[in-house]
Design goal:
The protein is α/β, with parallel strands linked by helices and about 375 residues long. About 40% of the residues lie in helices and about 20% in strands. The protein folds into two domains: about 140 residues, Aspartate Aminotransferase, domain 1 (Alpha-Beta Complex); about 230 residues, Aspartate Aminotransferase, domain 2 (3-Layer(aba) Sandwich). The structure holds pyridoxal-5'-phosphate (PLP). InterPro entries: Aminotrans_II_pyridoxalP_BS (IPR001917), Aminotransferase_I/II_large (IPR004839), AON_synthase_class-II (IPR050087), PyrdxlP-dep_Trfase (IPR015424), PyrdxlP-dep_Trfase_major (IPR015421), PyrdxlP-dep_Trfase_small (IPR015422).
Length: about 375
């Protein structure tokens, strides 16, 4: 199909993406000169615009980390000491595990899942709503995989039993806190399944939960005390950590495997040391953010309850609150109403979410208070 036709079809479907021109100022963005409260970022702890924090970081930054490029892959000369400092720092809280830093969550999921899928007799069972980066990892090698209905463990167990005898490894792919529906996966139940079916390995993406759970911000699995049961635990640093990058937490055997076989790790210039130093700085300060985590949780429950009182269809267990609107046009209309009222909360449409579940995804953060959100209830 010609490109012109593809673009026209997207427009006809109210599904054409274009980039908004934005200027950022604290928790606000300016769009075409209009000041809007930004409810579309994943800056859950509101650290990205914390000036004091950034100044403190810069004042303690060592010269050896003042590099805006690593100028090479880590496999060659790009492996600055700060990478290992960060990996060692995180490792201290994960018994028997090693840490491997990647340039982004997308790089990590794509290349680690592709690497795992090259192993003989390995089957992937993926929650229907896992992030595109994991799906792309599965597609890269045209791997055999099946998807189970979102958070439906009966369906998952049915698939496990059906395929168990044919495979040596069954890797279950899920997110700790789902990016679009904002709900938790039942990690305890997944760990129980692993005990019943020893061929199972758990691959859990904590992109939206790292920073926000556990006193040291080490994620939802850690908060539940299940971190040692997860074979492949993924943190990303571009959301609550307000930095960039990601890491894989796994055994040394798999760390060595990914260093050798994860192509996005091998064939891409490593992130600048200054960025990695910022990630480490944030983790070292994590215990100070407990108030933020508690405020975020309270605020989210309050906002959700108010929307529910108004009988809206709401999804989300905590700070990702999705208002389900159905078709793309309706979601675009509501996004426009919100924008006129001073809020930046764009419509989320397929393929990011399933067809006919277009929505406004309110991404709440610790820098908000209830008064910031009350006008939304009047606008809807
Ligand atoms: C669940 C999940 N995993 C991975 C990623 C990719 O992470 P990154 O933005 O660091 O590439 C995202 C980003 O949106 C995500 O939501």
């Amino acid at each position: 199909m010609p490109v012109e036709k593809i673009l026209q079809d997207l427009k006809d479907d109210h599904n054409f993406r274009s980039l908004p021109h934005l200027k950022h100022e604290g928790k606000f963005v300016y769009k075409e000169g209009k000041k809007l409260l930004n409810l579309a970022s994943n800056d859950y702890l509101a650290l990205s615009y914390d000036k004091e924090l950034k100044e403190e970081f810069l004042s303690t930054l060592k010269d050896e980390n003042l590099f805006f490029s690593s100028s090479s892959s880590r496999s060659l000369s790009g492996n600055f000491e700060i990478y290992e400092e960060l990996e060692d720092y995180l490792k201290a809280d994960f018994k028997d595990k090693e840490i491997l830093h990647f340039n982004s969550g997308y790089h990590l999921n794509l290349s680690c899942i592709a690497a795992l899928s090259s192993l003989d007799k390995t089957l992937f069972l993926a929650d229907k709503f896992i992030h595109a980066s994991m799906i792309d990892g599965l597609r890269l090698n045209r791997t055999n995989f099946f998807r189970y209905k979102h958070n439906d463990l009966d369906h998952l167990e049915f698939l496990i039993r059906k395929h168990y005898e044919k495979y040596e490894n069954i890797v279950i792919l899920s997110e700790a806190l789902f990016s679009m529906d904002g709900d938790f996966s039942d990690l305890k139940a997944l760990v129980e399944l692993k005990k019943t079916y020893p061929k199972i390995k758990l691959y859990i993406d904590e992109a939206h939960s790292v920073g926000c759970f556990d006193k040291k911000g080490l994620g939802y699995a850690k908060f539940l005390g299940l971190e040692n049961e997860i074979d492949f635990l993924v943190f990303t640093f571009g959301k609550a950590i307000a930095s960039m990058g990601a890491c894989m937490i796994c055994t040394k055997k798999y760390k060595d495997f990914f260093i050798n076989k994860a192509r996005a790790f091998i064939y891409s210039t490593a992130l600048p040391p200054i960025n990695v130093a910022f990630t480490l700085f944030i983790f070292k300060n994590m215990t100070k953010f407990q108030n933020k985590r508690e405020n975020l949780y309270r605020l989210s429950q309050n906002f959700k309850n108010k929307l529910k009182e108004k009988k809206y269809q709401i999804l989300g267990d905590c700070y990702i609150v999705s208002l389900i609107l159905g078709d793309n046009k309706k979601a675009l209309e509501i996004a426009q109403i919100l924008e006129k009222g001073g809020f930046f909360a764009p419509a989320i449409k397929e393929p990011t979410v399933p067809k006919n579940t277009a929505r406004i995804r309110f991404s709440l953060h610790a820098g908000l208070d209830q008064n910031d959100l009350n006008p939304i209830l009047e606008l809807l």
